[in-house]
Specification:
Layout: H1 8-22, H2 26-39, H3 44-53, H4 57-70, H5 75-85, H6 100-106, H7 113-127, E1 213-219, E2 230-233, E3 241-242, E4 250-255, E5 261-268, E6 273-280, E7 287-288, E8 299-307, E9 313-320, E10 327-332, E11 343-345, E12 352-358, E13 364-370, E14 380-386, E15 392-394, E16 402-409, E17 415-422, E18 429-434, E19 441-444, E20 450-455, E21 461-466, E22 473-478, E23 483-486, E24 493-500
Antiparallel strand pairs: 1-2, 1-24, 2-3, 4-5, 5-6, 6-7, 8-9, 9-10, 10-11, 12-13, 13-14, 14-15, 16-17, 17-18, 18-19, 20-21, 21-22, 22-23
């Protein structure tokens, strides 16, 4: 993401601005976000959120245009700007921001009925956030913003780009999606609106008494949205600790049952491989899982590790040499003798296996089976493999009505939670189903993506990740009280994948 270096003051202003927007305090949100882009005119996310809280059409166009100038690959900003213009996407041309003086001259806060309308608008905007899983931006609709900018008037000819837009210096004058002009130079005049203490977030922080540790991928890695440093954190969001070495990144981290080791899928940029790696929490014993079996059989696309309750095995998925799909494997990690029996292939079929999770007694594994190659349309079901008999039973049988993945078993063995996308929806929600079989029921839903649920060690809570705030953050849900807590607030990506004691 361009122009967004780590800065605690910027991070605090951005977080407070987002919280104010979500709470409906648009004037406060605008004042805070203006400070963000004033301190860093290349702050992509600051401009995007400023577009979300502004009610003036010209201002909204300018903010979204600045997002595209900073990051020409921001397809959400391109789509929103195209909708504002009523033009095809390829016809969108960035707009030169006006001067600060012009913006200051037009600043006029709404009052009375205008404030009510503004609050209604921001609620609509914020509840429309979310979208696909690789985005961390809000989704402002084609309404307008709060009166900070000016100088953008329709051209006499009207048409697809009916704006008096002067390209930025160095920018091409031809409509294009791949132009790379310099970043915007407009610096907003700080708003005269007083900034009171921001009210508490809609989602309170978790209690400090929550047990165990949460492991997640966390950070900002431009050009690689699915791999970050691996970070350990307390369930209340305190004491973050980066486990991986500098410049090392990956995903899907898990903790050993005794919390002395962790494993994750490490991204090897040189060969562009995904490899299962294990290390202790001090980072002094890194080793590849392939070191535990002899012959180094070619297992490509190693993914989705899961530690057995006794700590002796790690289940994972991989694609064997010559195989058309990924299968389920497990490797014994009690020693490094290189015994061939330490690697076992658990499935060998035409389905695409993913996301294994052990039952609390270690005798079964639940996993997602993608049947797309053997069925019409997108069809994914949850299956349970008995490790003693090697028999498989299908847990869900709803076809394309619900596309399931990322299951996890409750500590009492009674319930399985998972993420799924219902037919007709573009976002994932959290569901649960009895481990003995039954009908899935929604557990955690929103207009955004809610993914990768994992039970707490005591089974009273579920940790998951969501972009419901406009950013990928970690949340905790209390099952008994149905209370939602927010664990992380940083402007970078946080996605949790395990909660261990």
């Amino acid at each position: 993401m361009s122009g967004q270096e780590p800065n605690s003051q910027l991070d605090d202003l951005l977080r407070q601005g987002i919280e104010a927007a979500r709470a409906g305090n648009k004037a406060i949100a605008r004042a805070l976000l203006e400070q963000v882009v004033a301190l860093n005119p290349q702050h992509e996310k600051g401009w995007f959120w400023l577009a979300a809280v502004t009610d003036d059409l010209h201002e909204k166009r300018t903010c979204l245009s600045n997002v595209i100038v900073i990051n020409p690959d921001n397809t959400r900003a391109q789509n929103l700007l195209a909708r504002l213009e009523g033009t095809p996407l390829d016809s969108v041309t960035p707009i030169e921001p006006p001067t600060a003086g012009a913006g200051h001259a037009r600043r006029n806060l709404a009052t009375g009925a205008g404030v009510v309308a503004a609050l209604v608008l921001v609620i609509v905007l914020v509840t429309a956030l979310g979208g696909n899983g690789d985005s961390d931006k809000p989704q402002p609709e084609s309404s307008t913003s709060s009166g900070v900018l000016t100088g953008l008037e329709p051209t006499e000819s009207g048409g697809p780009s009916a704006l008096a837009a002067t390209p930025l210096p160095g920018a091409t004058t031809q409509p294009t999606r791949t132009f790379t002009p310099p970043p915007p130079t407009w610096t907003p005049v700080p708003s005269k609106t007083p900034i009171p203490e921001i009210p508490p977030t809609l989602f309170p922080p978790p209690p400090a008494t929550l047990p165990g540790q949460i492991i997640m991928r966390s950070g900002q890695t431009p050009g690689d949205p699915n791999n970050q440093p691996i970070v350990l954190i307390r369930p209340d969001g305190s004491s973050p600790y980066t486990l991986t070495a500098p410049n090392t990144r990956g995903h899907a981290p898990i903790l050993s049952p005794d919390s002395s080791q962790y494993a994750y899928i490490r991204y090897a940029p040189g060969t562009r491989e995904f490899l299962l790696q294990i290390d202790n929490l001090q980072g002094t014993d890194p080793r590849l899982a392939s070191s535990y079996w002899t012959g180094n059989p070619a297992l490509q696309e190693q993914e989705s590790p899961a530690w057995s309750p006794d700590g002796q095995w790690i289940a994972f998925t991989a694609q064997g040499l010559g195989a058309a799909t990924t299968d389920l494997f497990r490797v014994a990690i009690v020693d490094r003798r290189g015994d061939p029996a330490q690697l076992e292939r658990l499935t060998n079929d035409d389905t695409i296996e993913s996301w294994p999770a052990y039952s609390p007694d270690g005798t079964r594994i639940v996993y997602a089976a993608d049947l797309s190659l053997t069925a019409l349309g997108e069809t994914t079901e949850l299956r349970i493999l008995d490790l003693t008999t090697r028999q498989t039973v299908t847990l869900t049988t709803n076809g394309a009505a619900l596309v399931e993945t990322a299951p996890d078993w409750s500590p009492d063995g009674e319930t399985i939670v998972f993420q799924a996308v219902a037919a007709g929806s573009s976002t994932a929600d959290i569901y649960r189903i009895p481990a003995a079989g039954g009908a899935p029921e929604p557990l955690i839903t929103s207009d955004a993506d809610d993914i990768q649920p994992r039970f707490s060690p005591d089974g009273r809570f579920v940790v998951f990740s969501s972009n419901r705030t406009g950013n990928w953050d970690v949340f905790v849900y209390e099952l008994e009280t149905e209370t939602l807590y927010q664990v992380t607030y940083a402007p970078h990506t946080d996605v949790a994948s395990d909660w261990s004691r």
